[in-house]
Task: structure prediction
Amino acid sequence: MGRPKPWLVALLVAATVGAVFAAVSTYDFVQHLDRQVHALHCSFIPGVSHGGGESGCQVAMMSPYSSVFRTHVWGGIPISLAAMSVFAFLAFYALDLMVTRRKEDPRATGFLALATALPAATSLVMLVISLAKLGTTCKLCVCIYLASAVCLAAGIAVWRQAVRGGSGHAAPRAERSHGGNRYREDPAFVGTGKTSSARLVAVGPSGATSTGMLAAMFAVGVAFVVVPIALYLALAPDHARFIGTCEALPHPADTYNVMQRIERGSGGVPAIEVLDPLCPACRAFEQRLQASGIAARLDRKAVMFPLDNTCNWMVTEATHPGACTVSEAVLCAGDKAPEVIAWAFEEQDRIRSETKADPAAAARIVKQRFPELAACLGSPDARSRLNKSMRWIVANNIRVVTPQLFIDKVKLCDEDVDLGLEYTLSNMLARHAHGALVAVPLEGSAADKPAGKPAKATGEPPAKPAGGTP
Amino acid sequence: MSLMRAGLLVLLLAIPAALTGVWIKSADARLAATSAVATEVAPVASASDVGYCNPELKRILRRVLLSCGLGGGDAARGCQPVQAKNVATMSGHDFNALFTPMKDRGGIVQFDKD
Result:
């Protein structure tokens, strides 16, 4: 085996570290397949949970960039799964080079350097996405990026050393042809005169790396990625059975004229979204929906449901201070409602915080931005329309949580508003196209129970759904 | 040597595959368990949050509003409480049921004699 080269050891360590962090990330992702809310391990120390609240890891995991094939598999196939597999392969290959004498073979080490380029390039792309699109980074991801970088640097160093003939010395090599394959023999040094010309060619061939060997190693690398992914696809729970099991609208007609269009020029399948313009979960949902590309396939109309007790008798406190005022602004805006909603999503943090300190702040901020709405804001007509909006909510037995999306009267389950969004919505739209989108009870489960008895409204989020955070 | 390499290959290939399998099976088991039991969900929107606004009160209120011309159509003549009692042919029980809950929430409206 010989003495392991330091760079090869560094690569092995980095690959192991990368595999561990990718495994933790994969574990966090996979545990959400049970449709529940889970704490994430978001720390530079593997396995340590973050303190709560929204972390960069949560943003990254819930973003559409954390997995692929999201419309085919609930949640998609996590990229971290492939990362874990690639790092495992790098660790295997590094160990393989150690136990053989190919660590000094330029072709074998060149393949190693090439293999390390894959996680490095992927990490670079993901880092750019994190910074440019998500505006945050997750600690687990950063550790994976660093591990990838070290792997690449070490891989290149091992390769360069091999090209130079090992340890920076230009060692002569004997080339032979055997069985049609050209291979080289590593030099073996005798005595202490490594730098002198007193050297002998190695005792026997050193396991020359043929093209066939590299091809076999490439196939092994592919197997490292394909086997876990195939297993993932084979074992992943069937989430399609939950579609249509989460209530429906008994009276969807807009008899009070309270629905407002969410997007300009949208078309497609009719959909109703119950939202609070100052609700962070609604903003995040909107971002996910836009990123998924499915928003363009929907004709969405919004029903205002501000979780603010200044106008909403169903909540006991102002969960989102100023939401009543901004909801009135949306209702007053008419054709400009999409613009007001988009603005409210952008400014909701400021509006909430300022209104918490000064109840009149929301109206002031809205009037500053939309002076044309000043006359309507706070008027009896606006208040009446907002009241009617909430009466529509009551008439449809809607739960006190936002956001909620109904595709042609059938609700998108709260558990499907984040990781499972693309899969579930695609399925719902496909069923709608075939006339098969209907509300059904979930057989053999607690979901068979009635849609829900009236309960004291608290404005608190449901305990379990993955995405519903008012 | 070959055996060692093969062992390494199998071991390192099995680790991610096995972990993936175990984690997914675990999530699947939890999914089955939570589907079978009732979970806490958000309350359903309701029309009222006060106890006295019960179906009986709504029935009486509806009758009074309709009788006074305040509850539908384009009539809007309205009526004073005593008139309401006559117009809506309210019993004393109905009258009390309608106005007693208001005692803590409303004020006295004194009309001019005309």
Summary: The mean pLDDT of chain A is 84. The two ends of chain A are 60 Å apart (CA to CA). The first helix of chain A runs from residue 6 to 31. Chain A touches chain B through 65 residues (CB under 8 Å).
